[in-house]
Write a structure and sequence with these properties.
The structure holds 2 protein chains of 2 kinds. By secondary structure, chain A is mainly alpha-helical. Chain A is built from 14 helices and 1 strand. Chain B is built from 15 helices and 5 strands. Chain B is elongated, with a radius of gyration of 29 Å. Classes of the chains: A mainly alpha, B mainly alpha. At the A-B interface, strand 1, helix 1, helix 2, helix 3 and helix 4 of A face strand 2, helix 3, strand 3, helix 5 and helix 6 of B. Strand 1 of chain A pairs antiparallel with strand 5 of chain B, so a sheet runs across the interface.
């Protein structure tokens, strides 16, 4: 037998892995405690000192893990470190916490910037709607019977069979009673938003349902305009529709564009893999949809409350113009400086 | 090994479900994907909670105002919409990837590439539920509202639709539902971290040996040749055996079997009075030996490697 003998009890004192564990165990325990508190009672219950130490402890433990992988064969130890770092990872790399800051970031940069980058998809959504509306308008103007085909379900008693007086009454009908108005506005909002979210989500089915929804929306619009125009109520209809329509239609275009983004990523992933492409565009689409839902809420308020209480045509047009101008400004110009900064930063990183 | 399952003594996670992500610090971390059953259970819990909240608020408010105030309906409509569409996103943003249901079950959402879990990703993966869950459900159970007089084929289509998206996570390698694909996220088990004492650490080992009261004076000694037989895999199987709960009859049986096997394999000729002690000392010597080799860049994976 060779001369080298390993006496059992003496071995521990020379083992690097054991020494390593003794040196670092306190750090791991500290991280474990901090995370346990954060998990149980939320990040905000951590003291300022714990919060500043957290990233520090996390990095130290992470480096312990990579050391342990190279020097220790104690499986329980490497498993523990792996799991501990895994738990800490959620706390350190979970979503950022400052909700208010995130919201302000979203409104002042993320949303308008994402919308600007989706401009071609928005254009397609708008073109589909306009094409459908024009076609429906032409057909209905020639033959009012088409109205039933295009806007049958949405008519709510406004059909070619209604008298002009009835149609006019529909445009200038007012409601009082805040409860009724609120309910009306809330149902409009939740119905429209659901359709909007659906237009986005069905983008996953190659975008065909999204296009159909946009097309159908355009048909109803065109048929409506044709019917009211045929009775000389064209201006009145626009005054009735545009105050909320400027916001609502924009929101619908945005949702459609979000759906088209998904479809684009799936069908034409370009240079990326389909998954990478989806991931990129899916996130952008979600941002746009959330913006659109907020817009639909505003539109619901205008439609449910303003339209039901104000009947003056000039005021209606003023509000319509003001909202349209606002959205053009918002999506066209807000956050441009930040866009440039980000672009410069990316260029810097690339270099 | 005779009747001992080696796999059970090592990690119990299904290796097919283990995914590696690389943290922003460049260190690979392994997570185990959540099973479909866990995710379904978490989803049902969350649904239950949503229903309870809506009912409770409706009830509370109607009691408070006494009767159906008309703005109450408005509030409920709004609330139901917000809950249905933003409940999941809200919690996943606030609770680092967990909702109350996910937390109960012990699963979480992570970014598939290991980066920060972005709010936009959370929104994307949850807004898509409209397509995956709510729409087919509405079609199946309330088709008269969506599409009056829907023909049979439409309902069949809706059923098939729901089926396809519902079972999507079972049909792909990464257990992704559509929302995860769009957002680039994964749902993984939330690891539990328990630090067990080091088997080599005397302080930790002594009480057990002392309790047995049979501590022999002479320690077992092993030669280099004896330690050159096994590799890392065998060492960790041995660790698993030693870590099964002591005092258990299965533990005693396993220790006896393994000790005998080891003695035969390495041709140990010394006297052994306590199998447990023998194995612990062999483990310590073997680990010291293999770790020493590892420091010099020689990883001996198992007994078959050179």
């Amino acid at each position: 037998m060779p001369a080298a003998r390993h006496p059992g009890p003496a071995a521990p004192r020379q083992m690097r892995s054991l020494e390593f564990r003794r040196e670092r165990e306190a750090t791991w325990k500290a991280l474990e405690d901090t995370i346990a508190t954060a998990d149980k009672r939320g990040l905000r219950t951590l003291s300022a000192e714990q919060l500043t130490r957290l990233p520090h402890l996390y990095r130290a433990t992470l480096s312990s893990l990579s050391v342990a992988r190279s020097i220790s064969l104690d499986r329980a130890l490497t498993d523990y470190l792996e799991n501990l770092v895994g738990r800490a990872y959620f706390v350190v790399y979970g979503t950022r916490q400052h909700l208010v800051r995130q919201l302000s970031d979203f409104v002042r940069w993320k949303l308008p910037s994402t919308v600007r980058r989706a401009k071609w998809h928005i254009l397609v959504a708008a073109l589909v709607t306009v094409a459908a509306a024009t076609a429906a308008y032409q057909l209905t103007a020639d033959d009012l019977d088409y109205y039933y085909a295009f806007a049958g379900e949405m008519a709510q008693g406004r059909t070619p069979a209604s008298s002009t007086a009835e149609l006019r009454e529909g445009l200038y009908h007012t409601e009082s009673g805040s409860g009724m108005l609120a309910t009306f506005a809330a149902s409009l909002f939740s119905h429209n938003s659901r359709i909007g979210i659906l237009a986005f989500a069905t983008g996953f089915v190659a975008g065909l349902p999204t296009l159909l929804l946009l097309f159908y929306n355009g048909l109803v619009l065109g048929a409506f305009v044709a019917l009211f125009a045929s009775r000389g109520l064209g201006v009145d209809l626009w005054a009735w529709m545009l105050p909320h329509g400027a916001t609502e239609l924009t929101a619908v275009m945005l949702c459609g564009a979000a759906g088209l983004l998904l479809a684009h990523a799936l069908v034409f992933p370009g240079a990326h893999t389909r998954m990478d492409s989806l991931r990129e565009r899916g996130r952008a689409a979600a941002v746009i949809v959330v913006g659109a839902v907020v817009m639909l809420f505003i539109a619901g308020l205008i439609e449910g409350v303003f339209r039901q209480t104000v009947t003056s045509v000039p005021i209606r047009f003023t509000v319509a113009a003001a909202t349209a101008a606002w959205w053009i400004y918002y999506f066209g110009f807000v956050g441009r400086r930040r866009d440039q900064l980000e672009a410069a930063e990316r260029a810097e990183v690339a270099r | 090994m005779t009747r001992l399952s080696v796999g059970a003594l090592l990690r119990s996670d299904d290796p097919k479900l283990v995914r590696e992500i690389v943290t922003p610090e460049g260190i690979p971390l392994r997570f185990t994907l959540a099973r479909a059953g866990d995710r379904a259970a978490a989803f049902l819990l969350d649904m239950l909670l949503q229903i309870i909240v809506v009912v409770a608020i409706f009830w509370g408010l109607s009691l408070a105002v006494g009767g159906a105030a008309s703005w109450l309906t408005a509030l409920i409509v709004l609330l139901a919409f917000l809950l249905l569409n933003f409940y999941f996103a809200f919690f996943e943003v606030r609770w680092q990837g967990a909702t109350p249901g996910k937390r109960q079950i012990g699963i979480r959402v992570i970014d598939a590439r290991g980066g920060q879990l972005e709010t936009s990703a959370v929104l994307a993966r949850n807004l898509i539920r409209e397509l995956e869950v709510w729409m087919p459900l509405r079609f199946l159970f309330a088709s008269s509202l969506v599409w009056p007089d829907a023909p049979g084929w439409a309902r069949l289509f809706a059923g098939a639709w729901a089926f396809v998206f519902l079972f999507m996570p079972v049909c792909n390698r990464d257990r992704l539902r559509v929302g995860d694909m769009i957002a680039g996220t994964r749902v993984v088990l939330h690891p539990r971290a328990v630090l067990m004492p080091d088997l080599v650490d005397e302080a930790a080992a002594t009480p057990m040996v002392a309790a047995a009261g049979t501590r022999p004076a002479a320690a077992h000694a092993f030669s280099d040749a004896q330690l050159a037989i096994y590799g890392i895999y065998e060492l960790q199987v041995l660790e698993g055996v030693l870590r099964t709960s002591p005092g258990d009859s299965a533990h005693v049986a396993a220790v006896r079997t393994v000790a005998e096997k080891v003695r035969n394999k390495i041709r140990y000729e010394g006297e052994v009075t306590d199998d447990e002690r023998f194995l612990r000392e062999f483990y310590a010597a073997q680990r010291a030996h293999l770790e020493q080799k590892m420091l010099f860049g020689q990883r001996r994976e198992d007994k078959f490697s050179k």
